[in-house]
Amino acid sequence: MEEELEGLGFESLDILQPSMLLAWRAEMRPLELVASAVMPLLTPLMRGKYAPYRAIPASTVAAAMLGATRSGRRGVQRYTYEGIQSLARLTAPRTRPLTPAKTPARAR
């Protein structure tokens, strides 16, 4: 399917390739329930060549989708765990430094 999408010639195409999505659904199969409980414990241990297989919250993937639209990158881009995390950070609210409020000058 990815190859077919590439063949359509989009100006930009972002392909997110998450591993296991961490999210609660109304209907979960028994193995999904076990995996949802175990994967958050295993994820920090998955490093090096296993890093792309880390479980990731569905909300992070959703934020990454929004980040991909804001990134402005062109061409075909593929993202696994770390790339998805980076895209999600593009949607994080940015804080502005507090500036003192200006008081209007009194009429004389």
The radius of gyration over CA amounts to 21 Å
- The helix/strand class is alpha/beta
**Number of helical runs?**
4
* CATH level 4 superfamily: NAD(P)-binding Rossmann-like Domain
* Annotated CATH topology: Rossmann fold
What is the global morphology?
globular
Fraction of residues in helices?
A: 25-40%
Mean pLDDT: 85
Question: What is the number of E strands?
Answer: 4
Label the CATH architecture.
3-Layer(aba) Sandwich
Give the spatial strand order of the biggest sheet: 1-4
Distance between the termini: 73 Å
Oligomer designation: single chain
Please give the domain count: 1
Descriptive tags:
108 residues, alpha/beta, Rossmann fold, two-stranded parallel ribbon, 4 helices, 13% strand, globular
Secondary structure layout plus pairing:
Blueprint: H1 2-7, E1 12-16, E2 21-22, H2 30-42, E3 56-57, H3 58-71, E4 75-79, H4 81-89
Parallel strand pairs: 1-4, 2-3
Helix pairs in contact: 3-4
Structure description:
With 108 residues, the chain is of the alpha/beta class. It has one domain: NAD(P)-binding Rossmann-like Domain (Rossmann fold, 3-Layer(aba) Sandwich). Helices cover 39% and strands 13% of the residues. It contains four helices and four strands, in the order αββαβαβα. The strands form two sheets. The protein has a two-stranded parallel ribbon with strand order 1-4. Helix 3 packs across helix 4. The mean pLDDT is 85.
